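hey so i finally got around to running the thing on that chain from the lab meeting. sorry it took forever, my laptop kept dying and i had to restart like 3 times. anyway pasting the input first so we r on the same page abt which one it is
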Amino acid sequence: MPMIVIGSVSGAPGVTTSALALAATWPQPVLVVEADASGGDLIVRLDLNPERGAASLAAQQRHFPANGTVAPHLQSVRVADRSIDVLAAPVGSAEAAASIAAVLARVPFRQLNTTVIVDIGRLGPPGPSTSATTWSLLSMADFALLVSSGRPDALAHVAAAYGVVKQAAGECLRLLVVEDGPYDADEINSAFHCPGITMIPHDVRSVGLLHRNGPQTVARTALGRVFQQLSKKLAGTSVDGLRELPSCVAPVSPPVASTPLMWRTR
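ok and heres what got predicted. didnt touch it at all, straight out
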């Protein structure tokens, strides 16, 4: 089953929303893993039990390393008209960073019989633990989705980091751009030469529907329709085309940046 990694390079403009929208429209069983080292949002956003999640799973791995059971630490929640499993990160950044690094290094998510969507939040600079681990996630992903605002300043950050991210993620990299700026998909593609750009409606009302036991009307919104199309496209990719890679993440340093792309402004 595929592993989909979703992140950003400047802030986290819609990363968690994109992860939830993709999970809520995915046609197969799905697990959302919150791996944002700056701290998780899903405990509050989905009204989850803070005692179950990445922190409890990391503690289990420390005390009982032979016990690789993940299920007791997952929480099932209905978002829109779908029931999804969630492994939530702690809200605090220090606890989140330690828990995420331990979980990703030891738990074989790729061996689970479900699609795994990993929310890495902001892809930070190289570091000794979690940031290196999240860079490794990009190299393991079957699909890497980079989310950005459509504003010129945000796209400039993406342009500066795009070569490095592409080196790590390879041909599985796709851009998700929020329609809150002056550019359309063709203009953005002319700068990045990225074959898979998805424009996300800047729809605050629809984002507000992506919560626990939210209404099924999400699927009928512009945001829901875009993610339904994206889900069908990604899920329709042949399993033979997915990467054959190790099931756990081994921390590595990110690739060295080459000359960044230059983003034009109007």
